[in-house]
Amino acid sequence: MRNGRRLAVMAVQEVWRIDDEWWREPISRRYYRLLLEPGSLCTIYHDLLHDSWYEQRA
Amino acid sequence: MTLEYAELHCHTAYSFLDGASQPNEMVERARALGYRAIAVTDHDGLYGAMEFAQAASRIGIQPITGAELTLDDGSHLTLLAETVTGYANLCRLITEAHANDREREPSLPLEALEARASGLILLTGCRQSQLVRAVDGGRLDEARALLERYREHWGARNVFVELQNHLVQGDRHRIRTLVKLAAEAGLPCVVTGDAHYHDAALYRLQDVLVAIHHRTTLDASHQLRRPNAEYFLQERQTIAERFRDQPEALRNTLIIAERCAAFDLTRDLNYRFPDANTEPGETTDDLLRRETERMLDVRYRDDPAMAAKARARLEGELALVQKHGLAGFFLIYHRIMELAKEVAGEIRGRGPRSLGDLPPGRGRGSSVSSIICYLLGLSHIDPLKYNLFVGRFLNDEMASIPDIDLDFPRDIRARLIERVYDEYGHDHAALVCAFPTYHARSAIREIGKVLGLPASDLDRFARLSERGSAEHLDIEMERLPEFRNRRDAPLWRELIELSEQIAGLPRHVSQHSGGMIISSQPLNEIVPIQPAAMENRFVCQWDKDSCNDARFVKIDFLALGMLSLVEECLDLIVANSKPPVDLSRIDFSDVAVYDMIGQGDTIGTFQIESRAQIQTLVRTLPNCLEDLIVQVAIVRPGPITGGAMNPYIRQRQLLRRWGRARPTYDHPSLEPILRETYGGILYQEQVLQVAEALAGFSPGRADAFRRTMSRKRSKEGMESFWQAFRAGAEEKHGVDEELARKVFDKLLGFAAYGFPKSHAAAFALLAYQSCWLKRYYPAEFCCALLNNQPMGFYSPNVIVNDAQRHGIRVAPPDINFSGVQCTVEEWKFERIRIGFSFVDGIGEDAANALVRERLQGGPYRSLRDLIRRTRLKREVLERLILLGACRSFGLHRRELLWQLGLIIADRRIGSRKQTDGWQLALDLPTRQDMVELPPMGEWDTLHADYDLLKLSPDSHPLGLLRSVLPSHYVRAADLPDQPNHRQLQIAGLVVCRQRPMTAKGMLFMLLEDETGLANIIVHPPLYNERRMVVRGSPFVTITGRLQLRDDTVNIVASDIETLDASAPEPPTSPTVQSLLEQASQLRTLPTERDDELLAQLRLTAPPAHDFR
């Protein structure tokens, strides 16, 4: 969903994971680089510690 | 259908400070995940390869041997050994990579790998490979050229393009490109995991290891660490999903594993002993027989009865040697001993040390029980005379090569190692390595640092912690009030968890204390070799356990400080114009020597000088060598936890009091075995003999039992032995289960940490000789003891104080009398002169320069003369002055320091950089510029002594403090005269702390004052309450109860405090109180200055020796 509009995911271009800062404020995220219809790219990530989703702003 | 998979690229903890799991953890996890095979590919080494292969074989998963090599540009390539030739090539490559180890990290040019490609499968490497760097950089032509090059040198069927997916950004694209390039080159792909730990939870530890490796913190190492926690051994399902588009790459893991199954490191090493020099037609067994029979005729020529026994014993041992094919093994040792004799002859020359039959080295351990070893000169103890049982060393069913350990004086050992290299060649001989592991203190310091914890807190915590495993820091913190509340605090919590994980992991490569392996074929085809820290020394990459698993002949050349001491003592005796001594001909039954031993007057002697030994000596009163053999063996965890020590002591006391002992035996069959030790199990051989005599174990089974108990015990293994023991005892003697259990438990209690009798016998002989020398040549003995530090139980300041209490004078360093080392001076009386090497900050060069110039140009006449002739640095001159070494110039220390400032006005002049061609300022008299200065007082002198020498020949801090301490404080020398159980106080310098595993948490402390030593016992509650003081204060006051028992003197502490000069009076009885009031009117009151001086002294006082 973006701005109230549903967008279909055409393809998952890339998936990667970051784990860091565990000695302070732990970060554990799984990132997805998505190709959305009608042709835009976006990156979202799943916060694995809090089970929440975010879009990565450029 | 579940994927079948073999992991071909992973790192254990032997990728130092990169891998976070032990080899057995990796293989166990791989097996649990259902992998078909696993390859360990540590960085530039095979350190853990044998350990890994053994672990894998034990649990039934195929091990593959490999390594990840670093090229000159820092990139990585993975190589797997497919054949014996491939393995040999891998070893040679790793050896080459390390050849210039001291100058840089190990690495190789690609050409070197290409030259040794045969038998190796090449995997193109991880993200740090040349191929991936080219791909990531968009340099695809370069990548293509590289693949072509690999194909040319390794062959198309031996090169696989490695595909890795750790969910790192860019992995997908990289994989697609690599697959495409591989297809173009006609090369297959293979999936690898590049795991650096076996379980995901260890990713934090891996981060920490990387930070430690780069000497930085976690905060500052972001770019150096892996981006996520995916570098563990993955589930097969996960691997299948990540590589669902590359099924062939997945299948290739199995194809490679099948190919590599042709080589098994646990089986295919082809190691052989070096050949012996046999005559034509003569076998090694023939040669061994010839040599031993020849020596038998020599050794026993005067005693036909013993000769007959010796012959029978020899026949038995030769038969065992022949059965196990060990003749060559003994002959190598024989050759080594011959080389040792040559070396000893060169070093000793015609001097006093060459007199008599002083062997160049001495055997230790169970080998001393062998008559073959005795006749070949590998042992100096006649096994028949001391009734030594050989089954521990040689028996019918032995599964591994026996160990022969040899002790040498340090100088002989150093040259012998070089001689062995000359004899066998550098390619055929190498030292064994060792892997220091993380313990509590190292874990605290290194992990704490990368976490960013304050350095001072870490240092304090480390110092106050018990030495030992890093696994239980939470318990340590709980015990320390200062740290108790931090256990759940951020970063401290992580420190505890990570320390538990790092416990036991290898930190780096080090050299084993004396093990050397020798081979008939080039060693670097069997195990990689790398330079040791010392010039011209090389270590193999396996430790002693892996060398044993590989069935290498490992010769242990150990440097024994006491042997060096003895040799030096003999030289000093002659240098002091006394007749030379032949230690082989001294009286081994000298009552005066045994009297000295029985009084516990054994500081500095071999093996019987510790606090615990002394307490036992005065109770057992050994009076012959056999008694000393027991003494050496008895103060060990084995006899203590096996419950044999106290009964032995009681029997000795009965013997003394009533003329005979009354030992009891659990069973009549045990009497012949245990009679000499009054019914208790004191020797390892007795464990075997008891198992044989009571339960009918064969010698081999009995030894297997002993070994299982002494290594990591498995519950199943112990249970199996217990069942066999119980059944055997019942069958052989009708023994019931209760009795069998009682005896079995005694064996269990003993077996882990006891000495073989043969070892104790070898050491007892040297112990006696050291006592004899101390008794009759105390000055030479003490001098040699000082010159061979570090060794023994006590620090130099304790040794010097002990010598002085024996009437030996000890003189401080003197510019016109000292040598580099300590010497014995004959003046109006005998005294020891401390050498320049003892002075902190005076190196070998400066010490040699001082002595050399004095010998050439005569005594130094003044400070100016000293400076002019030696050009020593100002700092060195200051130290000499502060120590009073320039007293012969007629000025006291402060005056000399002032004069130094007049002669060398600027600190920079006189430094090494500026001494070439520098001139003293014009040689003008300084008398007119001298000022009147008060001489240094006793405290300042003592402080300088401790600061620069770590000992004080002239005074003891407690001697200086005595007048300001409460007068009721008892002195150490007066303790035996006090009433038993008296409550008292004593103050002193802590010289030793010991907290043995067998003591149930008790700590034993040795306190020294100006009159002697006092034994303090600290029970666990007091230890826990006062741990900071116990561990951290050099000067303490003890409040406690005197315990006089069986000629031992101890104080059982009820309180312990840091000593202050103005210590308050303790609560005492009214009578004593009034006495104190009278006394306090007479004594000197402490001043603030005393406390200040004491505070300074605390900083420089010699540290106590800490033992477990």
Structural class of chain B: alpha/beta
Query: Please, what is the average pLDDT of chain A?
Result: 89
Q: Main interface pair?
A: A-B, 14 and 23 residues
Structural class of chain A: mainly beta
Kindly estimate the percentage of residues of chain B that lie in beta strands according to DSSP.
5-15%
In total, the number of strands of chain A is: 4
- Rg from alpha-carbon coordinates of chain A: 13 Å
Strand ordering within the main sheet of chain A: 1-2-3-4
Global Rg of chain B: 33 Å
The count of helical stretches of chain B stands at: 46
Mean pLDDT across all amino acids of chain B: 89
What share of residues of chain B is helical? 40-55%
Biggest beta sheet summary of chain A: 4 strands, antiparallel
Task: Assign an overall shape of chain B.
Answer: globular
Termini of chain B, distance in Å?
Answer: 56 Å
Query: Separation of termini of chain A?
Result: 18 Å
What would you say this structure looks like, in words?
The complex is a heterodimer of chains A (58) and B (1108). Chain A has 58 residues and is mainly β. Chain A has no helices and four strands. In chain A, strand 2 and strand 3 form a beta hairpin. Chain B has 1108 residues and is α/β, with parallel strands linked by helices. In chain B, the strands form five sheets. Chain B has a seven-stranded mixed beta sheet, sandwiched between helices. A five-stranded mixed beta sheet of chain B has the order 8-9-14-11-10, sandwiched between helices. In chain B, strands 18-19-20-22-21 form a five-stranded mixed β-barrel. Chain B is built from 46 helices and 23 strands.
Give the topology, please.
The complex is a heterodimer of chains A (58) and B (1108).
Chain A: E1 9-20, E2 27-36, E3 40-47, E4 52-56
Chain B: E1 6-7, H1 23-32, E2 37-43, H2 49-59, E3 62-70, E4 76-81, H3 84-98, H4 110-115, E5 120-123, H5 130-136, H6 140-154, E6 159-163, H7 171-185, E7 189-191, H8 203-213, H9 236-242, H10 247-260, H11 284-299, H12 304-324, H13 327-348, E8 362-364, H14 371-376, E9 405-408, H15 410-424, E10 429-434, H16 440-451, H17 455-464, H18 473-479, H19 481-484, H20 492-502, E11 510-518, E12 529-531, E13 538-540, H21 544-549, E14 553-559, H22 561-575, H23 591-598, H24 611-620, H25 625-634, H26 637-641, H27 645-658, H28 671-674, H29 684-695, H30 699-710, H31 715-733, H32 737-751, H33 757-776, H34 778-787, H35 796-805, E15 809-811, E16 823-826, E17 830-833, H36 844-857, H37 863-870, H38 874-882, H39 893-903, H40 912-915, H41 938-949, H42 957-961, E18 983-994, E19 1003-1009, E20 1012-1018, H43 1020-1025, H44 1027-1032, E21 1035-1045, E22 1048-1058, H45 1070-1082, H46 1088-1100, E23 1105-1107
Parallel strand pairs in B: 1-2, 2-3, 5-6, 6-7, 9-14, 15-17, 18-23, 20-22
Antiparallel strand pairs in B: 3-4, 4-5, 8-9, 10-11, 11-14, 12-13, 16-17, 18-19, 18-21, 19-20, 21-22
